[in-house]
Structures are given as structure tokens and as C-alpha cells.
Amino acid sequence: MASSLAAPNQGPTDDIALADLLDRLLGTGIVLDGDIIISLAGVDLVQVRLRALISSVRAGDAVGGERGPA
Amino acid sequence: MDRPSILTRLESEPESIERDLMKLVLTIIELIRQLMEKQALRRLDGGDLGDDQVEALGLGLKRLEQAMDELKERYALTATDLELDLGPLGSLLRDDWLGEAAQTGEITMADVDDLSGPG
Amino acid sequence: MADLGRYLYAISRGLAESQVASMTGLRDAPLEVVRHRELGAVVSNVELTEFGEEGLRRNLEDLRWLEEVARKHDDVVHAVAALGPTAPLRLATICTDDDAVRRRLDESYAALVSVLDRVEGRLEWSVKLIVPATVRASSPAQSSDSTESGAAYLMRKKREDHERASRSAHVAALAGSVHGQLSEASVASRRLPAQDARLTGFEGDMVLNGAYLVEADDATQFEARVSALQSEHPDCQVSVSGPWPPYSFAMLEQ
Predict the structure, then answer these.
(1) Which has more confidence, C195 or C45?
(2) Which residues of C touch A30 (CB under 8 A)?
(3) Engineered SS bond to C212: which of A15, A56, B95, C186, CB 3.0-4.6 Å?
(4) How confident is the model at residue C44 (pLDDT cuts 50, 70, 90)?
(5) CA separation (Å) from C228 to B71, C100, C188, C202?
(6) pTM of the entire structure?
(7) Testing the interface with A: which of C123, C195, C229, C253 to mutate, by most A Cβ within 10 A?
């Protein structure tokens, strides 16, 4: 089957935004109340620092991870 | 690759630690304040409050809101900063659409019989 | 020698090891396929110091690690999904060895076949609806002044509450309507939790975070439908992304 997938990680405009990726790969919506709670099957809750996430998201993704309708 | 330890942060960023702590405290206070206002409005609707009680309740809540506004301004915190995601309890405070939008929905198949894939 | 585990990225149907022979996964380890009947789990070796329970507990708190691993995992899923029907797995699904992998494939065989049937020939689109933030903010011009009586304050709060509620109802109906229309234009759909603006940088309130499974051949039509929706709602932002591998329609509760 010919690939018609958007090529991954070829630059900011083609990336899946990190928030979208984590939503899907971690199987949970990202909850913001000062910290992010991540729960994986079989692994205890861990906490991720919000500030670090925002800076890494802004640096790498911004809203440019999306593209508008063709 | 190391993140600064909490001790390092205390030495180098005392103001931001204080602000972080205030943010936590004010978030809880704001939660209680909003719950109190909601409850007051319910009592008002219930019609079992005398005029004096309504006036006293309203003044108390108004002063509480003013005090919160002053504290927020002092620490440069916005209403958004103080929002607390309560998970399943979130609907206590927030508008209903947020509650619904906060849930992960089930997969809805448009045509349940059509699982045969491409022809 | 370090203890190794098998990191699973996705499960495919009809995939031959030769097809992934030149590809690498996390930490440049070669990709391999562990077969069970017609299913194949795409795996690579990982060190348990990094990906075992203790290691994960530590590393999942490191955003840079998380992003790096998520992106690599996604790269592999993309590559494999281009080769045939694929069910992506969540981050950090680790098995001790190939026998354990095959046991998992066997245990979930029926569910996996069902998922693969559902996603074959189809791709995922993400469509989000963002409304201006003023929709739910109360007017700052109406903040309390010292002459307002207690009773008047309460009446004002009551009025603002009522206005907020009716705006909410309107916004919820809008989101539902958009989701409904896009669902009709797709094979399957799903609402995901709204993302916080502080994380995404969108200005306004996300009222719909929808995932839509669309036949690969219908991509252009679907995009046109989204464009039409944007024109119908010029005051809102309709954000579309894709096509992606069918993450939201193939995730298994492992």
C-alpha cells in the first residue's frame, strides 16, 4: 500500500505536535494543574514538571505543529 | 542535563519559590471562594434567606472577591493561573462544556458492519 | 552484559522481517519482527536500566527523555504503518523476551485482528475547534465597586452565572455539531480531552479535540469538509492535522 502518511518529523510544520503525540502515546489527556500526572498500565503514577514541558513544547513545536486546511 | 535541585532553587530563586507557594495557597482559597459563591446563589434561589441575610452574605462575598483580586495583583497571578483541574470534580466549578470536553470519548463507528477494509 | 528487554512499537499484519531490516528504533537498535500467526510485533532491544520499571519511573519525569522517546516511537510507527495495517502500541510496552511477546499476541489475538480490520486502508485526522476566550470570561468592566450593595452583588453574580451557562450550552452544541458532521464524513470518530492552551499555545478555548478515521482515498474530501466548516465558522479556529497512523483507533489497553 502506497504511503500517503504525512512524513514524520521533517520540520516544525510536519511534526505531530508534542501534546497530540503524548495524548495518544500515553493514552491519557494531559491534565494541567501544576503538574502532569502520567499513568501507564503497570507503571505507577509519575509526575512531570509543567514548566519543563511548556518550555520544551514552545521551543520545539509551538502551534506550528498544525497545518491549516488545504 | 541535571535539573537544579530544590535547594539550589531556594538559593537562587527565592521570589519565584514564594510565588509558587502563594499560587498554590491562592488556588485553594479561590476554589473555596467559588464554591461558597455557588452555594450562596443556591440559597438565594431557594428563597429561604431574609433580606438582611442576603445583604450580609453578598457583602461578605464581595469583600472576599476584592481581597482575592488584591492578592492576585500583588503576586501577578491571573484567574487562569489559579484554575484547578479537579478531574471528575471539575464540573463543580467550571462550565459544563469543559467537563464534557475533558473526557476521552469512546470510538464511534459510523458503520459498524463495515469492517472489511479496502475492497 | 546489560539486561535487555523487547520494546514493542506496534503490531502489524503480514509484515516480513525483511521489510524492517534496514530500519532502526530506539538507541539505534535494529528493528525486528516477532511473528505469531499472521501478526507481527515490531520490536527492538532496549536496556532495562533505562526501560525497566525503575528506569522508566525515573525517565518519565524527564521531559526531554519523554519527547525523544515519543518521537522515535512515532517515527517507527509511521514507517511500519506505511507497509501495511498497523495497530500502534502505547509508549513503553516492554516484554522480557520473544516468548513473552508471542504470549501477548496470542492473548490479544482476537482484539488485535479486530483492530487491524478496523484501521486497514484508513488514516487518522485530528480536528480541533478553538473558540475565542471571551466566550466564557466574565466582563472585567463589571468588577465590584465599593458602592454596590451585598444584594446587588449577588444578583450580578447570578446574572453572570446565567450568562455563562447559556454561552456554555451554545458552545457545547457547536462542538457537538462540528463533531457530528465530521463523524459523518469519516469511518470512525472519537473525542479526546481538550488540551490546555498553556500547553499548545492556541489562543482561546479548545472545545473539540476530535480524532477521525478516514479512508485513505477520501483524504481530499475530508479536508474539503474541514475547510467548509472553517468558512462556516469564521470566528472560530478549526485546526486540522494529518494524515497520521491510526493511533486513536488502535490503542490497546495493554
Answers:
(1) C45
(2) 193, 195-196, 199
(3) C186
(4) very high
(5) 46, 49, 20, 21
(6) 0.71
(7) C195
